[in-house]
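User: Show me an example of a complex going from sequences to C-alpha cells.

Assistant: Sure. Here are the input components:
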Amino acid sequence: SQQGEEDPQALSIQEGENATMNCSYKTSINNLQWYRQNSGRGLVHLILIRSNEREKHSGRLRVTLDTSKKSSSLLITASRAADTASYFCATDRGSTLGRLYFGRGTQLTVWP
Amino acid sequence: KAGVTQTPRYLIKTRGQQVTLSCSPISGHRSVSWYQQTPGQGLQFLFEYFSETQRNKGNFPGRFSGRQFSNSRSEMNVSTLELGDSALYLCASSLQVNEKLFFGSGTQLSVL
C-alpha cells in the first residue's frame, strides 16, 4: 500500500526554472526521504529529513517537512535537462523494521 | 566501493515457470530489501533481510520467496509465474535500517 502521495503527478518546465514537488503522508514518521529514478533504472537517494527537522539543503535541492500537516516538499532550483526523471518520496511510517513506503512519484520533464 | 549489483538485467519467462533473481549489496551493508515496481501499482515492498533473517514481508503470495546468505548476498524466487508478475524488481541495501537505500539497476522480468 502507498504511504506518500506526490503532487503533481507530472510537471513540465523549462531549463533554469525551479521545480517544486509535494508529498503528503498519513502516519507518524521517523524520517522522510526523496529518491529520483531515471526511466527503467534503480532509484537514487537524494535527501533524508528527520521528523525533528524542518528544512534541509543539498546542492540545488531544498526539502521541507511539516509534520503537523504531514507533508513535505522538494524544490529543485535552476533545473537542468538532466534533472528529467521521476521523483519519489518515501516514509518509514514510524517503524524501525526494514521497510519504506513509496508514493506514486512525480514525473518531471525539463525542456532545454 | 562497488554499488548494488543485480543479475540478470533482463529476463523473459513463460507462465508457470519459476525464476531466481540475484542481488549483491554494497560491501558492509547487512540490510537488503526487495521491491516490485509496476506502472499500475508503483513500488511495492516484497521483503527485507538482515543478517540472513527475514525481518519484514510485504503482502505478496507465497510464490514469492527470498533468502540472504552469510555474505549478505540475496536472492528472490518467484514460482509458478503469472502474467501479472511482469515488473521491474529492485533490490536495495543500506547500512542503517530505513535510511538511505542504495538501489541496484533492477531486473526487468517479462512473463509471456
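The lines above are the inputs; the final block is the predicted structure for all two components together. The two ends of chain A are 36 Å apart (CA to CA).
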